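Fold it.
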Amino acid sequence: MTNKVTTHWKGNSQFESDNPSGKTLLIDTSEEHGGHNSGLRPKALMLSALAGCSGLDVVSVLDKMKVKISDFRMDTYGELTEEHPKYYHTVTVEYHFYGEDLNEKKIKKAVDLSIEKYCGVMEMFRKFANVKTSIHYHNK
């Protein structure tokens, strides 16, 4: 299967990129690098793709397990190399779950399935970065 994304220059440092869903997003850079700070930055988008991929897995598995949570977020950090081309050498994904009487065992299983089996973006990241993960439970 091949995914196709079209990215179209909009002038200055702005690009509009589509998605197979038909949705678009704006890519730009900081003012110090000649942009207008009006869009998402490419390297940060990679972290969003990683969290989004894993998050979709986790909520799908939790739904199948009938596990209830009131909220869920992921904080994703990427540490760049010093030299060009700069890329993420270390990436950390923190999974934060909120709710009453959280089923930590099932939540851990859902996260582990994403990390170890389902998340293709995480597998791609492993080709160039040390990927670290942690789970944090916030019982109300």
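Residues 42-139 form a domain with the GMP Synthetase; Chain A, domain 3 fold (CATH 3.30.300.20).
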